[in-house]
Every structure is written in C-alpha cells, then in structure tokens.
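Sequence of Trehalose utilization protein ThuA (Candidatus Raymondbacteria bacterium RIFOXYD12_FULL_49_13).
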Amino acid sequence: MVKKIRVTIWNEFVHEKNDAAVKKVYPDGIHNAIAQGLKKEMGFIIQTATLEQPEHGLTEKVLKNTDVLFWWGHMAHGQVDDEIVKRIHQKILDGMGLVVLHSGHFSKIFRRLMGTNCSLTWRVADEREIVWNIAPSHPIAQGIAGSFELPGSEMYGERFDIPEPDQLLFVSWYEGGNVFRSGCTFKRGNGKIFYFSPGHETYPIFYDKTILRILANSARWAYSPIRLSTNDVPNQKTPLAPITKRKPI
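Predicted 3D structure, token representation.
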C-alpha cells in the first residue's frame, strides 16, 4: 500500500479577515483554497494551520505528523515566534519538505534557510505573467506545458537575493518587462525546499489548475519517507580499526 503524504498548509490568515478585496477572492482563506485544490489530487492527507492558533498551529505533534509543509505569509512575518521557526528549521534539516509560496520569500523560516535577505523588486499593476517551464523533465514540472499565462499578477522581479538554486524550474516574464526566477529548488540537511512565486492575495491564482498541479507535484517531490536527525552527532570514542601506537617524536 502506498503511503499517503501528510501535508500541512500554513497561512498567516490576516489579509482575508482585514481586507474586503482579499476576502472576496479567498473567503475561507488562502490555506483552504490550496487545501481544496490538493484534495482533488490522489495520495494526500491535508491539514491547515494559521498564525492565530496556539504555537501558530505548528506544535511538535503537528510537525511530527507533517511530511511537507506549505508556507504562505505576507504582512505578519514578524509575528511568527522565533522558537517555532527554530522548531520548523530542525524538522526540515531532519527531512521534512517545505514549499514556500509567493511573499513567503520574506518569512523568517525561508530567510534562515537561505542565509540571505531574500529581497526582490515588486509592483502591483494587474499585469500579465507568463511562466516558462525551463526544466520539463523535473518531477515538479511533470504535466506542465512549456509556458502558461496568468492574466493578472503581482510582479516579482530580479535581482532576487537568494543563493544559487540547486535547480531553476520556472522563469516568469511580466507585461511590464521584468523577469524573475519564479520556481527554485534547494536542499538543506535532509530536507528539500521549493520556492514558487505566483500567488498574490488579490488574484485567484490558487484556483488555477496548472498552479495546483505544480503544488501537488512539489509536495510529492519534497516528500521523504525517512527522517534522519541532524541534531545528534555521537562522539565515536571506539575506533573502527586498530590504531598503531607510535613513539613520540
């Protein structure tokens, strides 16, 4: 029997309660829109968590039962408790997958993993975005056309202050002329990370079938059946082979 992948979708869930325009697009929250889309795919067990919950909904028990964590944040990055970030960071090093979406590039966890500011240029001008699939053989890009269009999007542009990705999967072009590395993979410790930029809160991007297929593919790719702790490194006092005793010089 094939094991189902346990996915936790985290969303700060602030915009949807404070901004009428956002609430109109995502009345039940971005996390639930993604969850409903992924539920149409086979092989997932899905739960959600939000900022306002105790421990931001990311308790030790929740993370122990999470194979892949999705992260969407924007206006409340600073409200995420540092101890929770430390906890998530260790779980990723041990093998939990992470999918960071859109403005999650400025989240504490992504910046900690990247070791850079993760800054970029941006513009909200309701412009067309064409996403180019430049690695069609990669598992995340399976079943995705050579390019696809989002009729309205927030522009994210270069330079994107991240380390060189392990692999660049998607590149976006915007109507205003900017380009952006919109789909990047990384590995930290035993954990696999995918950053994917489309997904501004005032656009219905997380209802798009192509976007949801990419998210499902990314969860399957980021999943690891084995967790190996990178935290405990034993002191190996007993040698593996005899050591010849040498006379002091």
